[in-house]
Amino acid sequence: MSEFVFDPMDGALRLALASILLVFAIILSRYRGIGVEKELLVGSTRALLQLAVIGLILTAIFENEKIIFMALMIAGMIVLGGYTSARRASGLPSPMKITLPSIAIGSSIVILFLTGIQVIPVRAEFVIPIGGMAVGNSMNMCSLFLNNFKREMQSRHNEIEVRLALGASGEIALAPHLRFSIRSALIPTLDNLKTLGFVFIPGAMTGMMIGGADPIWAAEYQLIVFFMIIASGMIAMVLASKLVSRQIINPAQQIVEIG
Amino acid sequence: MGVSLEMIDVTKRIAGRALLDTASMRVAAGEISVIVGPSGCGKSTTLRLFNRLYEADSGTILVSGKSITEIDPIELRRTVGFIPQIPAMFEGTVGDNLRFGRNLLTGMPGQPSNPDTEKETLMLAGLSPDFLDRTASKLSVGEQQRVAIARALMLYPEILLMDEPTSALDPHSVGKVERAVSGINRTVGTTFVVVTHDPDQAMRLGQRIFWLNGGSLREIDKNEVEDLMKGKNGCE
Question: Which of A93, A114, B12, B20 is most exposed, with minimal Cβ within 10 Å?
């Protein structure tokens, strides 16, 4: 068991002491003229408030253990993830119609699968953080994919038009560019997977070990999390690629110009 | 001679500007028609309306007497081929590029088509059959432009639309592309609609010349081309 016992006063003191690092970063930014002092200060204050609110909500849900609250919490994350990812895809006709269903389906499938086969127990303290990772990573991959795809559409417009002009359907004309955009979006995750444990010890494993879990058990969970991240991200990106194709190519097989 | 392409009262606006304003033109089957006009007047847009890469706001476009909106766009584009200003080469060899459209047609991706057909088509486009195994992206722009012509020809289109096909080429390559166009027109009977801003090219290639400016499109005589283009740096 961990010897780390939570005491609110002690916790606040630790946080205050650790914030010296933030002050140091702000001083560095000012001294070197990087100009992100305000952003660091506002961002950190926002993060503090957000985490405090989420801490209170999670405490209430953990004490309750009702599935409906877990589902609502995950649904809230999905909506926020869909909205955030859609902002990255601005310029597309209806980005939210791409990101929301893709992230929802990608993350829901993996959460239902893992709870269904009892790899993770249907308990709030497992479902919510692990679900959050699935939603967060689906969101990141969706954003990266859409960002890559928008760049492809701008730089390879001519190639796509030639395929259409040679009698290809929109699906065929876009296929190589969608594949490339998915592959590029997977690079950070694949690199993390290759160096897992050597270059960095990821969040879930770190958190479990700090919480006193056996490192082997923590490593097992970390791998489960990684498989889940890859699966949910892949499902979300493949769905997003289908949905974005329908927005980019109209029924007359013409390219819809994006902003 | 029959009418291959016909545009009747077509209007097309982009960003609020009428590039075509109730414009009409007729392209005779088996001829090389050239559209000339100052830059930015909508020549490329006009070309893309013929195979529905762009949609007209109003008016009618007929291919062999049939409205293009009544033809499946994929079928239409196999009949009315298009070659853009910058030849976009796909990954792989020249052969892979030539097979792209044919494989879609046969529904057998990756299947080689008849190598003799590929070689003959390359020769029609003014390239030696040795080019088949060369990497397409490593060719010069002039060679790529002729590969693009051959790639479009592999679908046996009745009409080929060419958007400023020689604007990025040196004079030597310009001649080769122009000879390829004339040769294909003469031997296969393909109808061409070529867009250019070069009055000399319009006179060399065009059996019929159309002038596009300020949203209007009209047929002109060869001797009018140079006078009209003089001092025209922009659109009216």
Answer: A93
| β-strand pairing of B32-36 with B58-63 | unpaired
CB contact under 8 A, B101 and A166: yes
* Signed CA dihedral, A87, A182, A240, A203: sign only: negative
Going from N- to C-terminal start, the domains of chain A cover 1-64, 66-248
Using pLDDT thresholds of 50, 70 and 90, give the confidence band for residue B176. Answer: confident
The shortest C-alpha distance from A165 to chain B (Å) reads: 6
Is pLDDT at A1 greater than 70 in this prediction? Answer: no
Could you tell me which CATH number the domain at B3-90+159-229 has? 3.40.50.300
Mean pLDDT of chain A: 90
Nearest to B78 among A158, A167, A169 (CB): A167
Q: Is A255 on the interface with B (CB under 8 A)?
A: yes
Query: How does DSSP assign A22-39, residue by residue?
Result: HHHHHHHHHHTT---HHH
Burial of B118 (0-12, 13-18, 19+ CB in 10 A): buried
Instruction: Note whether B155 contacts A164, CB cutoff 8 Å.
Output: no
Q: Which ipTM value was assigned to this complex?
A: 0.91
Q: What is the pLDDT of residue A194?
A: 85
Any idea where the domains of chain B sit in the sequence?
A: 3-90+159-229
Lowest-confidence region among A37-51, A177-191, B99-113, B167-181: B99-113
* Residue A118 forms contact with B (CB below 8 Å): no
How far is CA B223 from its chain centroid? 23
Question: Does residue B231 register a pLDDT over 70?
Answer: no
Pairing of strands B32-36, B191-196: parallel
Up-side HSE of residue B114: CA atoms within 13 Å toward CB?
6
Q: How far is CA B110 from CA A166, B63, B94, B148, B161, in A?
A: 16, 31, 14, 19, 27
| Diameter of chain B measured on Cα atoms | 52
Highest mean pLDDT among A15-24, A207-216, B107-116: A15-24
Quick one: B50 exposed, middle or buried, by C-beta within 10 A (0-12, 13-18, 19+)? buried
Please report where in the chains the tokens 């002109």 appear, as a residue: B220
Q: Using CB atoms within 10 Å of the CB of residue B230, give its burial: 0 to 12 exposed, 13 to 18 middle, 19+ buried.
A: exposed
Instruction: Count residue pairs from A and B with Cβ separation < 8 A.
Output: 62
Q: Chain A neighbours among B 144-173 (CB < 8 Å)?
A: 148, 151-152, 155
Q: Could you give the CA distance from residue A228 to residue B202 in angstroms, rounded to a whole number?
A: 62
Cβ–Cβ under 8 Å, residues B77 and A165:
yes
